[in-house]
């Protein structure tokens, strides 16, 4: 009961993420509508009424502290501006473009209030509010209502939630399921709760990176990060065996590959390579000669096992997808060369630069500039989207809306980077207890923070050739990763590292 009372806000944030991820990956507005608004209200209520209190605070004092920090946060006001921008189109509906058969020309409808944000259909546009408002409230709640321990616990819980979703996907493959929850057939291919497999790939790739950082931090003990400088948390975060965290690491990796998303497979390889180099270099510098021999043996053994497992057990579908991952294919996907959607999105943006054509307005306006052959491809699964988040958001929300979205992200990223730089400088100047791994600035950071930057960067790279940020499950976790990352950084107030003193 004490655990629940201390972490009631964290649990409600987790429930919101569970709602987005387990209800068909957040892509079924009809199923989200009865659940997500209520969960959002509960998160907001618990942020203002039941925030986590420090040991030296009463609940009333904690509420005052949270309120003061909340009203000083620029993210709150940028989020409110974005919300207003998304609400205005409900009062400025333009309708769909109409094709005149006699004149063979398109009629572009004009909204009642030209010059203001508009949308094509209110029902489709409402989906954006169903995504962004809950995600922003969850981030504000984690940022201001959770203490450092709560943030660390939330990030662990998010990884285990993804692990449960991975197990669901494996069960589907094992049983030959024809739908997400073994009902009537719905999608031609799906994985876990995601009807669009590329969403699944991006989701599990992000959690693979986060879980790897959590595991390596525990497994490496006090050899890296603030712990190497004698900074320890007042709470015992290392009570359980670190190797339990290998379960979410491995299952999220396999799930990302099993999604058969080519972008996810490629990015998983990149994430694996980057984090492996980070871990191996650090361990090598911290080991003696005997340790070097053991490390080489372990690495060679793991590589041999992975190679044999892939050769023997990898299904033919996976091998077929791998053959399509070529440098030219990657370049064409990212650059948009040869893809008419990229051209169409740019044309729509040039016509509606400030506010775009509203949520999910792209498929309606795209038909105006498409050839008949191009329109036919919009009927296939995923064919009505640009497959480039930046271009589609620019087309639908314009420079103003997309700019506010980017500012929301920067309000999380920039303070984290500033705090990380301050931490590394203080710890480096204080001197580490053991010989520091080089570069010192990198290995002074907690592995969890390194993993957050690597995993979120992978999602951004994925968005250059697909649309992961149009999945509320991915979007919410991506934002929460930054909000939780500072929970792994100690508060440093002088040239000598100190504990946060929560």
Listing every helix as H and every strand as E from the N terminus to the C terminus, the arrangement reads HHHHHHEEHHHHHHHHHHHHHHH
Give the biggest beta sheet.
2 strands, antiparallel
Proportion of residues in extended strands: under 5%
- Structural Rg: 24 Å
Strand line-up across the major sheet: 1-2
Number of extended strands: 2
- Assembly state (oligomeric): single chain
Topology:
Blueprint: H1 2-6, H2 8-22, H3 29-32, H4 36-49, H5 59-71, H6 74-87, E1 98-100, E2 105-107, H7 122-145, H8 148-175, H9 197-219, H10 246-258, H11 262-286, H12 289-313, H13 316-323, H14 327-335, H15 340-351, H16 362-369, H17 372-377, H18 389-430, H19 440-443, H20 447-463, H21 472-485
Antiparallel strand pairs: 1-2
Helix pairs in contact: 2-4, 2-7, 2-8, 2-21, 4-7, 6-7, 6-18, 7-21, 8-9, 8-10, 8-21, 9-10, 9-11, 9-20, 9-21, 11-20, 15-16, 15-18, 18-21, 20-21
